Amino acid sequence: MPGTNLTRDEAATRAALLDVTSYTIDLDLTGATATDASTFGSTTTLEFTCREPGAETFADLVDATVHEITLNGESLDPATAYADSRITLTGLQETNTLVVRADCTYSHTGEGLHRFVDPADDRVYLYSQFEVPDARRVFTTFEQPDLKAPFTFRVSAPAHWAVVSNSPTPEPRPLAEGTAVWQFEPTKPMSTYITAIVAGEYHAEHDVYEGKHGSIPLGHYCRQSLVEHMDTDELVKLTKQSFAFFEEKFDYPYPFGKYDQLYVPEYNMGAMENAGCVTLRDEYLPRSRQPRSFYEFRTSVITHEMAHMWFGDLVTMKWWDDLWLNESFAEWACYWCEAEATEFDDAWTGFANARKQTGYRADQLPSTHPIAADNVDLHAVEVNFDMITYAKGASVLKQLVAWVGLDPFVAGLRQYFKDHAFSNATFADLLAALEKSSGRELKGWAQEWLQTAGVNTLAPRFELDDQGRYASFSVEQSAHPDWPTLRRHRLGIGLYDERDGGLVRRQYVEVDVEGASTAIEELVGVEQPALLLLNDEDHAYAKIRLDERSLQTVIGGLSRLEDSLPRAVAWTATWDMTRDGEMAATDWVRLVLANIGQETDAWGVTRIPASTALAVELYSDPAGRAALKGEWESGLRELLLAAEAGSDHQLTFARSYALAAHSDQAVADLRGLLDGSFAVEGLAVDQDLRWALVTNLARLGVFTDADIDAELDRDPTSAGREKAAAARVAQPTAEAKEAGWAAIMDPATPNETSREMVLSIFRPGQVEVAAPYLEKYLEAAETAIDRLGFHKGSVVLEHGFPRLLASPETVARLDAWLADNTAPKGAQRYVGEARAELARALTAQERDARA
Ligand SMILES: [Zn+2]
Questions:
Q1: How does DSSP assign 559-615, residue by residue?
Q2: CA 530 to centroid of ligand 1, rounded, Å
């Protein structure tokens, strides 16, 4: 029983047999506004050729009621031909026409064709999300990226709707009773997973980009209740800046005619690169004040999806083995574009402070895997699609650019686009283009970086002479015993001296590091600086260690470093040492409290306090935790009151203070901020901040359901409902946890509501009410993905573990479970990760106890 899985071998066999000439897809969405709408009509006409007449193959279709199948004019019985999410096709001819008429199912998990009713005004919104294999939930497909074809969509829908797809939106023709049909022009050849349909009462705004290759119509869409929050001028500006950058750098005209960006509700990810029809989560249109890091991230999402128009949509991977390349490239390119073409010119510092951290974390979990994963089937793709794919992949491409040089790298890319346009390619094709343009042999490099897992540690080793100069100097490289590869690194080394109250760079060298020990002759005879910073400029992807003197310099005042990038490298090194139990959590908290007020990087300001909350709750010595929590809470209060009025620091410290609040003073402050009796000059207590305050008062048991209901009355929006659900489950009662867990495990709970609840349910200080959920979590692990769908199930398993139960007993219980269970691989993965995180926390706690 293949089920919904599809193997690489099956896909290769099918691609060897077939060429797809065209898809014509009729969707009947006219019933979508009915209260009980659960299905829609879907008729697919697939024209394809076959290299071996008489052979057989199959088409894909999931969760459908099939009414009629005809192959080359002959009717097939759906009862026998359609089974197990596949339609068996036998006796193929040289040219074939397959017609499948079916009813497909609306999704509430964000996979397939998602249907959403806005509680603000009862309007209906649909959007598709197809990557990796979900186009087959909406029409009949050959669901694999290398069977590209032109797609013709014909969509019937309520006449007053907006309907958007990959091709430009045509004038609709009226049908009966307030409905109409949109007949789209055929698309360029593309893969099924980047086709798209977005339909509903969306609001639209239009503009045009005039570029070096001609003009590109631009559309921005959102639901009606968010119109006032769509900052279209800013979005258009960023879009135009990005087009100008990519058209110049890639030296290839934008291939898909028009470019629409649609902000859609209950979206699982950041965005999706549907060709010319990009969907993005509509939380990116904020209704409340957000810090600069929010806008910096949103910009990186916009540039990421645009980079995919070339890398992914124009030239597409053959199979999901190269999904990493697709995502790693778009990640790398999005920061490149952001730093060079938009106002976020320090985007690489933000990358170091935020995104790159998620790569380091993922690479030290037992679930780590080579960047280039061996994706034998769709199940393997699900397991291997993570922050190794995005963040580590982008970091390693950044290292590759340092290794070959930017100009040769770009020259290789340009050739790759020209050679493989509207077709499929593999990593080997890209590597060949880069080897040619750079003149460097890259197969060995690719082997050590892409086909092995794990992150190296780089540490300085030196002797000093009697004048305080380096008598010898080397960079020592080590690896985790489970992932023992040592790699070649292009590495910057910065030497910083104390001068006029600051830390000033005296010398910078860039070297190639290779093997266990690399002697750095340039530094012999050089006076030891106050701070020796390995990975200055952040080219390398590696864990960095500071020598004793440098660590003391950093603790004595990290903010004395003038530039944000070396600060990010120093923050990263000390945080990594804290996670590894080489620096006490208490010292980390003090480092943050003393320096975060002066941090200027937007991501540093928001990300570092979030890490610190984790250190306080999980990495601190339990015996000293109450005191450290007090120090953290009062330190944040001081930072909040000292922050510049209206600054990002002020907003971030207010949010962090709400999260850390537990004393009577803090409870009074939170209440006061809500009712206006405690005002902080320049701090607007807007709706999102109100929910942060309400949720934390609920967490503390100060607020009850009645208070949450009252806030929901003030904010009767979909966001309000999601926040209210999160506030309810935060309450420290067994009833709240029980009701919350039941809702989380209920397939009917919408995906975004479920996600908010999962992130909110297990709170510091709630050990007693959380205790039963270790077993409940393990029980859920057996079925969550089957029951809730891949995405929702994964969110529950990744974030729903009650990690506040960190103890040797919990670790032992997880070990026992892992040794003996039949749960799906995806579930085992998350339990293994939870186990590793708890073990890490216990090590850090021991270190903190010695502080
Ligand atoms: Zn992407």
A1: GGBSSHHHHHHHHHHHHHHHHTTSS-HHHHHHHHHHHGGG---HHHHHHHHHHHHHI
A2: 41
